[in-house]
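TASK: fixed-backbone design
INPUT:
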């Protein structure tokens, strides 16, 4: 076997090994933590304030009702049903 063919075969085998490892890593990774900011599940709406030392004011957008502001602390805050809450965002001030 020529040196060139040996190198090509070795590189192909290495690429295949890395690809296989990548696939295993992806499937073995635990579920991601809740994202920062507004997010929804199939049934509920949440705001996750990721800082650990502040409380912030968010504006909550509501379907067929007035929007409102709310003070939230660190961590996940339940806002209501995903069918009623259209979004939420940080308004730029603490509380």
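OUTPUT:
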């Amino acid at each position: 076997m020529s040196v060139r063919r040996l190198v090509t075969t070795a590189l192909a085998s290495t690429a295949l090994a890395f690809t296989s490892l990548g696939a295993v890593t992806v499937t073995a990774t635990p579920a991601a933590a809740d994202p920062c900011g507004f997010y929804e599940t199939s049934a509920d709406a949440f705001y996750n304030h990721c800082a650990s030392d502040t409380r912030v004011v968010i504006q909550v957008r509501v379907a067929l009702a007035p929007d409102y502001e709310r003070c939230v602390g660190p961590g996940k805050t339940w806002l209501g049903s995903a069918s009623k809450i259209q979004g939420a965002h940080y308004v730029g001030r603490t509380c």
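COMMENT: The helical segments are 3-28.
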